[in-house]
Specification:
Helices cover 0% and strands 47% of the residues. With 129 residues, it is mainly beta. It starts with a strand and ends with a strand.
Length: 129
């Protein structure tokens, strides 16, 4: 069974940086897409970034392009989200997710939470102004 465990969330000032980690286990992920989502209080869960495990294919929502970077360490089966120049609107619970359907050509498929079968419990990121 796939397990995803996030870590790295904390309180940070606007303009600062954080790196979130997602330790993945339970199977091999060569055909998977790994994603990061976030949810602010009172709002729906929204897509942040995703990547195909076995290809150099990356997806980002517009508001984080140029500031956030998704990456992985295959040896550790860990996915990272490097977040720079953080803004108060980046505040929320950040979730790691995994989709076993890594063959879609259209990246927009991975923008939806319903495209992911496995989820972590989340890690809180709070950006103060």
């Amino acid at each position: 069974q796939v397990q995803l465990v996030e870590s790295g969330g904390t309180l940070v000032q606007a303009g600062g940086s954080l790196r979130l980690s997602c330790a993945a286990s339970g199977r091999t992920f060569e055909n998977y897409v790994m994603g990061w989502f976030r949810q602010a209080p009172g709002k729906e869960r929204e897509f942040v970034a995703a990547m195909k495990w076995s290809a150099s294919t990356f997806y980002y929502t517009g508001s984080v392009k140029g500031r956030f970077t998704i990456s992985k360490d295959s040896a550790k089966t860990t996915v990272y989200l490097q977040m720079n120049n953080l803004k108060p609107e980046d505040t929320g619970v950040y979730y790691c997710a995994a989709s076993p359907r890594g063959g879609y050509v259209s990246g927009s498929y991975y923008y939806s939470p319903t495209s992911y079968d496995y989820w972590g419990r989340g890690t809180q990121v709070t950006v103060s102004s």
